[in-house]
From TrEMBL:
InterPro entries: PIN-like_dom_sf, XPG/Rad2, XPG_CS, XPG_DNA_repair_N
Record's protein name: XPG N-terminal domain-containing protein
All copies of domain XPG N-terminal, residue ranges: 1-36
Coiled coil ranges: none
PANTHER family the record matches: FLAP ENDONUCLEASE 1, FLAP ENDONUCLEASE FAMILY MEMBER
Organism whose genome encodes this protein: Gossypium tomentosum
Pfam family, any one: XPG_N
Domain of life: Eukaryota
Length: 72
Protein backbone atom coordinates (compact mmCIF):
# COMPACT_ATOMS: atom_id res chain seq x y z
CA UNK A 1 0.00 0.00 0.00
CA UNK A 2 1.41 3.36 -0.95
CA UNK A 3 1.93 6.27 1.41
CA UNK A 4 -0.97 8.25 -0.08
CA UNK A 5 -3.42 5.35 0.13
CA UNK A 6 -2.34 4.51 3.65
CA UNK A 7 -2.85 8.12 4.72
CA UNK A 8 -6.33 8.17 3.17
CA UNK A 9 -7.26 4.94 4.96
CA UNK A 10 -6.07 6.30 8.30
CA UNK A 11 -8.01 9.53 7.79
CA UNK A 12 -11.15 7.59 6.84
CA UNK A 13 -10.76 5.60 10.07
CA UNK A 14 -10.71 8.84 12.06
CA UNK A 15 -6.99 8.71 12.79
CA UNK A 16 -4.57 11.56 12.25
CA UNK A 17 -1.27 10.20 10.99
CA UNK A 18 1.99 11.76 12.12
CA UNK A 19 5.11 11.28 10.02
CA UNK A 20 8.52 11.93 11.53
CA UNK A 21 11.52 12.03 9.21
CA UNK A 22 14.30 12.81 11.63
CA UNK A 23 17.58 11.19 12.55
CA UNK A 24 19.87 8.73 10.87
CA UNK A 25 18.50 6.02 8.57
CA UNK A 26 18.54 2.47 9.97
CA UNK A 27 21.45 0.18 9.13
CA UNK A 28 19.36 -1.86 6.72
CA UNK A 29 18.56 1.26 4.69
CA UNK A 30 22.22 2.32 4.73
CA UNK A 31 23.16 -1.07 3.28
CA UNK A 32 20.53 -0.74 0.54
CA UNK A 33 21.73 2.77 -0.35
CA UNK A 34 25.33 1.53 -0.52
CA UNK A 35 24.25 -1.38 -2.74
CA UNK A 36 22.40 0.94 -5.13
CA UNK A 37 25.35 3.32 -5.24
CA UNK A 38 27.70 0.44 -6.08
CA UNK A 39 25.42 -0.86 -8.85
CA UNK A 40 25.05 2.60 -10.38
CA UNK A 41 28.81 3.21 -10.38
CA UNK A 42 29.53 -0.31 -11.66
CA UNK A 43 27.09 0.18 -14.55
CA UNK A 44 28.52 3.61 -15.33
CA UNK A 45 32.03 2.16 -15.40
CA UNK A 46 31.03 -0.46 -17.96
CA UNK A 47 29.07 2.05 -20.03
CA UNK A 48 32.11 4.34 -20.17
CA UNK A 49 34.35 1.39 -21.01
CA UNK A 50 31.97 0.20 -23.71
CA UNK A 51 31.71 3.72 -25.10
CA UNK A 52 35.50 4.04 -25.18
CA UNK A 53 35.82 0.78 -27.09
CA UNK A 54 32.70 1.52 -29.16
CA UNK A 55 31.28 -1.87 -28.21
CA UNK A 56 27.57 -1.20 -28.63
CA UNK A 57 26.47 -4.72 -27.66
CA UNK A 58 28.33 -4.47 -24.33
CA UNK A 59 26.86 -1.02 -23.65
CA UNK A 60 23.33 -2.28 -24.27
CA UNK A 61 23.84 -5.31 -21.99
CA UNK A 62 25.17 -3.16 -19.17
CA UNK A 63 22.39 -0.60 -19.56
CA UNK A 64 19.55 -3.14 -19.49
CA UNK A 65 20.97 -5.89 -17.27
CA UNK A 66 23.59 -4.12 -15.11
CA UNK A 67 26.35 -6.43 -16.35
CA UNK A 68 27.67 -8.04 -19.49
CA UNK A 69 26.98 -11.71 -20.05
CA UNK A 70 30.73 -12.40 -20.07
CA UNK A 71 30.95 -10.97 -16.49
CA UNK A 72 28.60 -13.61 -15.09
Amino acid sequence: MGMFTRTIRLLEAGLKPVYVFDGQPPDLKKQEIAKRYFIANYSNYFLLRADATEDLQEAVEVFFFGHTWSDK
